[in-house]
User: Fold these one by one.
Assistant:
Number 1:
Amino acid sequence: MRILLVEDDNYIAKPIAKDMRHQGHVVDVANDGISGWECAQTVEYDLILLDLMLPRLDGISLCKKLRASGCKTHILMLTAKDTTADKVLGLDSGADDYLVKPFELEELAARIRALSRRVVEMQQTSIVRGSLELNLNTHTIAYDGQPLALTPKEYVILECFLRNPTQVFTRANLLDKLWDLDKLSGEETVRTHITNIRRKLKAAGGSEDIIQTMYGVGYSFNSKC
């Protein structure tokens, strides 16, 4: 990842930058808010580590300025202020996460890994499993290029299988996924949705066994179909 560290205290900035570079990241360091703004305008970063208390332009103002300019880069705010009000202020300004000083470098690294996974998810536009393609932008699923006419509940179920192709889902698992759409559904409803999905896959030229029954357990995605 390419990371911008905006931190005015060199005793903090140097060990963070050294540790991040040791992990294979490319790190630029800015010592005040204006310099951080200028860096963010000239280089496309994957992550910005942003101190709250900065000279020339404070972290909250810089974060708001970045978001107002259309910057989508993930921002992890670093601050010695640990009250709930301070955390809310930081997150409301557009930060994605908040880490209170002092912190261990291991914890910072873990937060960065978590945010890096979000970066990958944001960059990914589709999930392809064989002839099935899940479009993450339009929230549609197609078989061999042919869009499937799925109901919202059917889409949620098939999405689960495409995102987790090695997982076995019980009916209760799938029912949990449908909870926000239908709080009154029972496990028998899941069976009906699975049947309808299989029928639509077959009509599109696919195999009904793309969703296979694991007798006595539940259902799983069949990558061989």
Note: The mean pLDDT is 88.
Number 2:
Amino acid sequence: MQSIFMPDAIYRYMLGASLRETAIQAKLRAETAKLTEAHYQIAPEEGQLLAFLVEMTGARRTLDIGTFTGYSALTVAQSLPDDGRVISFDINEQWTSQARAIWSEAGVADKIDLHIGPALDSLDKLLANGEGESFDFAFIDADKENYDAYYERCLRLVRRGGLIVVDNTLWRGRVADPGDRKHKTEAIRAFNAARLEDGRVTLCMLPVGDGVTLLRRR
């Protein structure tokens, strides 16, 4: 995956001029590229953006909704202080077994708690356990039909001034095509429209990766 709205020559220049990807991150991307589902992987420049935001905000407790092979959790964990934690959610044992192996190799496995099962159930348990407003940062990159539900939980779990980052909000440009009425496209389109009117947050949509929206809780 790369920033799909950018000409190749400029994209290559940008990576050469600014990408600071660790060897273990590059290894994971190369291994993930062999999978049929490799397009689920975030772009390396998007990972760098996540790391930048985590460091800039001084985040310590973070949520990672949609683990896949572990690149986003790895990237965030590498950027956290020693006492930082990532709580990551996925339903796929095969993909996350690869994630666990790479986290261990990178020396950040002790910073990441992986929950296998429906993320909404796990997020609701965190809320029921009194962990509302105790997280600094959340990254949402899972099934698109549940984006709004994930967001609403994260908005309650993230502290005031905390960040929620949502992936795929430009959906390869399909959201701008009125003729595309597919369910996932409609879900993202509806999510974007709702956030524009959401006074609980300030927001910024960027053409990074497949579109990423930054939302800061007021």
Note: The chain has a mean pLDDT of 96.
Number 3:
Amino acid sequence: MEQEIIAMPRIGDNAPSFEAVTTQGSINFPDDYKGKWVILFSHPADFTPVCTSEFMTFANMEEEFTELNCQLVGLSIDGLYSHIAWLRTIKEKIEYKGMKNIEVKFPLIEDITMEVAKKYGMIQPGESNTKAVRAVFFIDPIGKIRAMIYYPLSLGRNFDELKRVIIALQTADKFSVATPADWRPGDDVIIPTAGSCGVAKDRVDGKDEGMTCYDWFFCTKPISKEDVLNGIK
């Protein structure tokens, strides 16, 4: 028997659309979130320890993402009543790393048919045929996929990195720059390569004020942390 081919959306694609029931009511995705950034993420199953630690962390950081005009939307292939019972258990019983009484207010999608998970390539047979991997999709305010990160079932996500990705994408859009390895707000950003040799030489000669050029193709400039965070709001 031939193995089913799992389609995966690509960076730059329109986010696949769907309607779904969630713990916060029905949604029409991504249309309901136009004008906002969205982190759409999947987890393997309710009532599992890694997923519990992740949902507590997401909920604890939700206000930080909200300040970045970013909506969180979760998904697993469990049913709505399982979602509700699990989130209630998290709030009433689980204390982890100083987090307790954590209420998950962002929507968690019911996907028992795996329709949405399959649209987004979250079911990967090499890992599991019956559970979604830990996929993360960063979707911009016009509904385009801008970045994706996939993790296996056993690996919990790095939430500092998820927040860093959102800020970096917003910074690139706002200031027409790129961000170098390990970039954090306040670090120098990269100026896109010049379009002509004459401009490139000016860059290397340091004639563009504020730039540091290491060669014609590699120039940086400072943007303060305050300017970054104020500019993306």
Note: Residues 34 and 142 are 6 Å apart (CA to CA).
Number 4:
Amino acid sequence: MLKEELLERVREQGISISSSMIERYVEYGLIVGNRVSLGFSQGVVTHYDERSIDTIVLIDKLKSSRMCKHQKDCIFILYWKGYPVQWDKLKARLVEFHSSIMNTFKEVAGYTAHPEFPEIIEDIANDEVARAPKAIGRPTKQSKEMQRIEAKESTTRLIIASKLIADIIDNGTISLDVFRTFNQLSNIDSEVMNETILEPTNDWLQMMTWKNAVRHSDEQDYQEAYELIDLLKEYWSDLEALFGSVYEIPFFGNSIKNLENYFQLKFLTDKPSFYRYALLVLISGGYRQQLKQFLSNPETRKIWNQIIASLPSLLAQVTGEEVKLNG
């Protein structure tokens, strides 16, 4: 359809939209248009497919909910949900995002070397606790002690997170001491985490070529990444269908809770920040084809369903607790 028809049909949905807004969506890569020549000296016109209407409706909802700080960020949500986007604009946003991450990490790594860094972090944590909502009335000794403990825990959390970043940026590895401290503070301490996971993680960090991987990515990479995302959605839906909530999944649920509490954020949210990180890993990791092939195997899916079906009884045998299933 031409732009005029697209505008008319979107307005029928009760959405106020202008021709310039359509152009802006195209500029940001949120809408895919097919430019067709009218012939010699006749110019070109842009044709839009039917899904452009659904795309604009979703963008309007995202704007109303303030899900995206900038309209450009909507491209990550649209891509993750399977809407057609301009892959080159998606790539440009990913390159920009990766650059901003590395610049921030370098700044943080530089701060950790400052001799007064612990004191600065402690002041920041104390200020945050002081600004938090307080109970009405005069503060008690107990409430003051709770604030002190909260500020101390926040200070420790910020320092260890900063040291993790500094290790990666300055040394290209994560030291065993820092990794152990992180695990202890996040309540996921184990020798498996410390030794089995740390070593391959450091090997991966040393070989990491994220910047080059993103800059040299092409349309095929983004098609493969989405196919893998679609498969991961299917596997994840199997878990949610059985347990109802991600936090009720045996073994994994508590770990997710601990990590979210540690970092003071929600990982599993429908936000551009989560999707940007996930896409960055998928484009840069170098394992898409192998993982896609593995997950596409019907036998793998069969084994997966057998595993998650056995989780409740397995947990009951280990802990003696009854697992509550969805429905």
Note: Residues 188-193 have pLDDT under 50 and may be disordered.
